[in-house]
Amino acid sequence: MMDDVTKAKKVAGEEACTFVKDGMTVGLGTGSTAEWAVKRLGELRLDIKCVPTSKGIHELAESVGLEVISFEDFNKQGLKIDLDIDGADRIDPEFNLIKGGGGCQTREKAVAKASRQFFVVADDSKLVKRLLGSFPIAVEVLPQKLNAVEKALSSYGKAKLRDFTTDNGNKILDLEVESNLHETDLNELEESLNLIDGVIDNGLFTFQRPQKVFISHLGGAVDVLEI
Question: For 180, which DSSP code?
């Protein structure tokens, strides 16, 4: 039997799918709420092509009958995406995001950048007044640069190595930002983290903010928020 939180995630994921139409190329985000969108798209049997943001979502999409363009082919071909549906670990009132709890933030950001529309689906527990300090920032790092990057991140806070390898073959350092940096400009922080030698990308989404956010509540109601 499905618990109330899972039901709420399901409703949010399915609501976003009402905007998907025949002929679209759709980005498929990674995460427990985004998975419900993938399953719903499989049920709808629309004439669409899909770009997954992780190997797990690729497998799920194929299992529900969706036509999939691999992330690697998407990258090589420079494809544009009509609509990207993804989840988030935290969302602030300006629709800045923290993503990367599943370690897929680099691919998720690439798909969001290539999308004409970017939608986020989440339950109401993901809404926060202040982004920094609410959830660790996942920083994807080249394995051979791990020690140097960890040292560089110490000026921002405490970085902990995650026992995880990304689909790109890299490692993740989870950064807990120091409290004195909680008022830092988010755009500036996202950029400065990515300027560290050895960093591939990080889980702050401040330049790729969604146009719509679908927030579900216990009981089944969904709020569709827009910037």
Answer: G
User: Could you tell me the two tokens for 171?
Assistant: 């490692």
Read off the pLDDT band of 28 (50, 70, 90): very high
Stated as kind and residue range, the H or E segment containing 113 is helix 105-113
68-87 pLDDT tens trace: 999 999 999 988 999 999 99
Catalytic residue among 14, 15, 35, 108: 108
Rg, the chain, Cα only: 17
Strand order in the sheet with 171-177: 157-165, 171-177, 137-141, 199-202
Contact 115, 24 (CB under 8 A): no
Query: CA of 223: how far to CAs of 71, 137, 166, 184, in Å?
Result: 30, 26, 32, 29
| Average confidence (pLDDT) over 9-14 | 95
Kindly report the number of other CB atoms within 10 A of residue 72's CB atom. Answer: 9
Measured CA to CA, the distance from residue 120 to residue 159 in angstroms comes to: 27
Residue among 123, 128, 129, 120 nearest 219 (CA): 123
The predicted model gives 169-194 an average pLDDT of 95
The percentage of the chain sitting over the pLDDT mark of 70, rounded to a whole number, equals 100
The answer to whether 140 is a known catalytic residue is no
Residue 48 scores a pLDDT above 90: yes
Distance CA 117, CA 73 (A): 20
Which residue ranges form the domains of the chain, and what is each CATH number? 4-128+207-219 (3.40.50.1360), 137-202 (3.30.70.260)
Cα gap 61→48, rounded to integer Å: 12
